Amino acid sequence: MKFSVQKLKITGSEPLHFEEDVDISDVVQMNNDIRKIDPVHVKGFATMQGNEITFSFSVDGTMILPCARTLVDVTYPFHINAVEVFSVSSYYSEGDESEIHPVHGEMLDLDPYIKENVLLEVPFRVFSDDKKAQENALTEGEGWELSSEKKTENKIDPRLQKLQSLLKDDDEPENR
Predict the structure, then answer these.
(1) pLDDT in tens, 37-79
(2) What pTM value is reported for the model?
(3) Could you give the CA distance from residue 126 to residue 124 in angstroms, rounded to a whole number?
(4) Backbone φ, ψ for residue 3 (5° rounding)
(5) Are the beta carbons of 122 and 63 closer than 8 angstroms?
(6) DSSP 3-state assignment of 105?
(7) Contact at 8 Å (CB) between 126 and 67?
(8) Strand (E) positions, the chain?
(9) Which domain of life is it from (predicted)?
(10) Among the four 1, 140, 161, 173, which has the fewest Cβ within 10 Å?
């Protein structure tokens, strides 16, 4: 999604509205959690005031992520509202700590900022609501076993079983 700086200057104080579907499928290689992402729908407007261009836009789409329990595909819909500010000033440098991005050349490419906002939206973990997937999920393997609170309430850790026998001996009255 590219914009001409000259076209933004011509619009002046009037906002330039835009709406487009953008293919950002290469974020799959950037983040191991995203298995697939459909083209996202970007809608917003750009305004120019002095040397600063402000883009206010929303991104809607769906991504496929792995379930944290079963690793099956989970469809995760998302909606992002974002504001990005750019500067066309030749005196502006990238070394500044501000959130203003410099514009190099006559074209402004919004795609990297769309991708950045989508990557920031990836949740820490998602869970599948599919009952069949949960039933078919692995519960044990070589050297590991899935445990739940219900299962472990009455079960005594084998490493602590000898201590249990010592506690039973102390509870009985001594016959001396």
Answers:
(1) 999 999 999 988 888 888 999 999 999 998 887 788 889 999 9
(2) 0.70
(3) 7
(4) -130, 140
(5) yes
(6) coil
(7) yes
(8) 2-4, 16-22, 36-37, 40-49, 52-66, 73-87, 100-102, 107-109, 140-141, 144-145
(9) Bacteria
(10) 173
